[in-house]
Amino acid sequence: MMDFSLAGAFRFWQRNLLLFRRVFPYTLPENFLEPMLYLLALGLGLGAYLREIQGLPYTAFVGTGLAASAAMFGATFECTYNAYVQFYYNRSYDAVVTTPLSPEDVAVGEVLWGATRSLLYGTAFLTVLAVFGVVRSPWALLLPAVFFTGGLVFSALALAFTAVTPSIDLFPYYFSLWVTPMFMFSGIFFPLDALPGWVQDAAWFTPLYHLVRCTRAFAFGTPLGAVGDLAWLGVVALALLPVPAVLLRRRMVQ
Asked: How many of the other CB atoms lie within 10 Å of CB of 166?
């Protein structure tokens, strides 16, 4: 049974928020500017030759996909490199559990904070798109909650890997074998319809595929088309949440 309290997880979330306020200017480029460069290079460059996809201007198509990827990267970097540095090098987790907080509180609080990073970066990117007239539907106002839900999945997966990896040098494998394939084959840059069936089936089991579909549906006023995708993210988030908590406790008591 997990030794977990929502109040304890919230306290750890508050701690991360206070730290984030100090380092925010330094974390902005790694999670926000890179997707913006993709948008400029592909949306404006390739968009000059490829006008529409699925009835959408190509810039709008790729821009909404990149908003979802910004949410993914925000959570993933937080719960891999940042979490590992706190746990292994700074020993912050060890210090925290000397208080009434448990390892499970730390894990759940870290996942919640990673999801908050998803909300912040996804919403910031979406705001830029709205300024340029890409997003026009009032349903887009619900997307921060969608980014948070997707962020729970990305955070839980990343923190579970962090809890079992023996070295920070192994994180490139997590990105190369998991994050990058999701980024390339989740429908961000092109529809998956023309790809082999097994690629489409594999993509369906990745969270970014569903988050991209949700982002486009809400951004362009067709939220009913994403009900299944949003439900998928919510169910998987609930199922995965205990995993990093169990693995982190096991790692910390060794």
From this structure: 8
